[in-house]
Structures are given as structure tokens and as C-alpha cells.
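Reopening: C-alpha cells for the pyridoxal-5'-phosphate complex, inputs below.
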Amino acid sequence: MKQSSSVEELAAQLRNELNRYSPGGKLPSSRALVERFRVSPVTVSRALAQLAAEGLVVTRPGAGAFRARPRTPLTRTGDTSWQEVALSADGAADLVPRTVDASGVTICLAAPPPGVIEFNGGYPHPSLQPEKAMAAALSRAGRRPGAWGRPPLDGLPELREWFARGIGDTVTAADVLISAGGQSALTTALRALAPPGAPVLVESPTYPGMLAIARAAGLRPVPVPVDADGVRPALLADAFRATGARVFVCQPLFQNPTGAVLSADRRPDVLRIAREAGAFVVEDDFVRRLAHDDAGPLPRPLAADDPDGVVVHVSSLTKATSPSLRVGALAARGPVLERLRAIQVVDTFFVPRPLQEAALELVGSPAWARHLRRLSGELRARRAAMTAGLALRLPGLALPHIPVGGYHLWLRLPEGADETRLHTAALRAGVAFTPGRPYFSAEPPAAHLRLSFAAVAGTEEIAEGLRRLRTACDEVFGGPGAAETVRQAPAGL
Ligand SMILES: Cc1ncc(COP(=O)(O)O)c(C=O)c1O
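Re-run output (same inputs, fresh job):
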């Protein structure tokens, strides 16, 4: 029998027998347990440790193991209503009140109820994660010399070098800071670049998690519309002029949620406009490693064509691996790097060294290239299944752009359609999607929904999810012809 299962079995037996002992009473000695259950001393000590972790047993070195005394419940229920005042009655005269609201993020992170198909997930399904390679990398990492010590504050030099190479020749390891994934890097960047109350230009629509960061930092997101070629340069210039903003947050590659790629002719415009405004461009390059296998060559990151240090680049490993491999990078040139470094150290000290070592082991292993190849093929197949299923089941939903990278599709509903009602009906029908509203920092031009194809088990689940979505559309838009009544949505993304 495997060691781990004998530990589980022994722990279960001891758990069942605990009532035999009075609270605080002594359990049989380890030796007695070894003899009685015919297991090794290691198994006994692990099973007791497990019960101790569950709070059922207390172990005292040299004295033995004892049944834990029940914790005395708090007799008086406290009154926490004072906190409502404390959390809101801010004496400081903030120009822009801080709002801390995680709902735009949790909708992509939360697991849907059992049986509900997850078209709302923001990370790859376990079957798309390199689980074996990650486990092997983590175990090798844990044995590396110094793995449990303090890492250099900026991150492991080899990992910084690896991220720098991925960005382009112009970026060196010295320009890179290792961060705890993209979310943390975006938080650092926004806090470093804009003081509370300042405007920050954002694409419209854009990633709600970034809007949440901006609002929690007391910043004022100002939307700049995106079309199928990315942000619209003339409107970007207008927005800089109108607001005096010093920061623009941009996802040039497979934008979330539209999937748009900033076109070759707009790339220099964006950098020039920001430079002329004396502003930074935060480049959120979050899904570069999720290009589909029919994508062809990808445009370089904006940071690779930026001699003047306009771009603060953010990238992350999570989307191509697992939400828990929270390792990413911030890259920047010039004095701003010092500001970013200081904010990051103040906020988080550093990214845990074992995780950095594991990331390094993973991306340096032969399994890495294999995994990325498989992922890009799988994502293309899923995208094809979803677009074909939409054409079949929901031909009236407007899908203005089919991206060749990333993990989701962005659909536009006709004027007057109520995405919240559709969302509720879809959950009833057994499918979850992400409603469009949180992606807009101001009034949306239309109702939308985002359908993710990465978090589901495979193409069969995609087909079933779309069947359920059709049921929900029929319910909300009326009758079996619903998809057709959801006829021509207005033009645009
Ligand atoms: C556009 C974008 N940027 C950044 C992130 C943050 O991801 P992570 O912190 O897992 O790297 C996400 C997550 O959904 C995202 O969609």
C-alpha cells in the first residue's frame, strides 16, 4: 500500500476512535499504535500530524499525543457595524474616492456551481495545464541549493534573463523585475506611475481586473475605444489632450476581451502619441504564449521597439500554465525602473523563491516547448468548435472578430438586449459566461458577453454549453427563433 494512503487510513481510524478519550486525554503511545495497526513509525507520526493540523489532537514532544480540548466558542456575538463607518468615512479629501470592488475579477476566477459549464473561466482547464511538468519542476526546484532562502529582490537572474529574451533584443535582464503574476505587476505599475486622483487612459472595453486595480488606487480610468486593429490613435491623442493623463494601459496582442491585435501601422502611432504627451504606456502582454497554431508570426512586444523607455511591459506565465504559477515580469528602462522596484519591494518584498526556481525549471525543460505546441493546437481546435457552434446554434449573435490567439470570443448583443437577464437565464440553463458590462469603464455602447473556451474540458463541452446558451437566448429573447431574433447587432466590436 502506498505510504500516503496508509497515512490517510490510519488518520481515519484514529479520527473515529477519538471519542474514546476524554478531552485532554492521552492517546496510546506511538509504539503502541505501530504495533496495533502494523504500520511504520513514520506513518504513525504523519497520521498524528494530520489530526493535529485538523485541530483534533495536540502533540507534545516527549510527552505524546492528546485529544484536543474543544475550543470555547465566543459567548458574545460582537457588533461589527462600526466597520461600515470606518471603511467609508474617509477624512481625506480625495478627488477620486477609492472603490475596492473585486467582482470584475472574481467572475473569471470563481468556480461555477457544480454541473454548470464554465464559459467564464480565465485560466486553462487542468487538461490543458502542464501538470506533470509543473510537478516535476516544483520537486526539482525544492531540491535546488538555496531554494528556500531569500531570492535576490529583483528576482532570480536567470529568470529575469529568460523573460528579457522573450521580450526582445533591446531588453536585458537588468531591465526586468520578477513579479507575482500579471495582476501584481499591473498593480505595481499603476501605483508607481500615477498618484491617487490621477486619470489613467484605458482601452474600451478592457480587462475588469485592471479597472479594479485603478479604482482601488484612487485613479480615474478614462476609456479610449478599441476596434479590430486595437486602440484608435486619434481618440488616444484626444484623450491625452483632454485629461493630461501620464499613463495609458494597453494590451496590443489578443486584447481582453475583444481579441484585437494592435495593427502594424498603429504601433508607432501609439508610442509617438504617448511620448508626445510625456506619458507611459503600460503594455499588458498577457497571452503572448497563447497564440493559436494558425496565428503565423506574432508582432513583437511594443517594449521591443521602444528606445525611449515609454513602455512598461507586463507579462506572466499563469495563462499558459496555471493560475497558481504566479510568476510574471515587469520590464522598463530608465529611472522608472527604480520606482517600480521600490513599490514592489514595499508591497510584497519578493516572489517566493521556490516558485521562481520552479518556473525556471519548467521553462528550461524539454516539456515546455512541447506543452506550448500542444496548447496552441488545442486552443485553435476549441476556437474552431466554438465559432462553428455559434454559427450553428446562435447565428444571430454578432461575432465581429475571431482572434487567432487567447482563449475567448467577444460577442455583441443587439440594441436593447439585457445581458444581465441573459446571464441569469444561462446559469439556470447550466452555462456561465462573463457579461460585458464590467469591461467598460463608462457607459457601454451595447450589451456584450465573453465566452471563454479554455476553462472547459473540451470541444464536446463547448457544443453542450452553446446548446444551453441557445436555451437561455430562447428564454430571454423569446421563442425558439431567438437566435434569429437576436439578429443583426450593430456594427463594431
Ligand atoms: C488582460 C489581463 N491581464 C492580466 C491578467 C492577470 O493575470 P495573472 O495575474 O494571472 O498573470 C489577466 C487575468 O485574467 C488578464 O485578463
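Residues 108, 122, 181-183, 207, 209, 251, 256, 284, 286, 316, 318, 323, 328 surround pyridoxal-5'-phosphate (CB under 6 Å). The radius of gyration is 26 Å. Marking as resolved unless the reporter disagrees.
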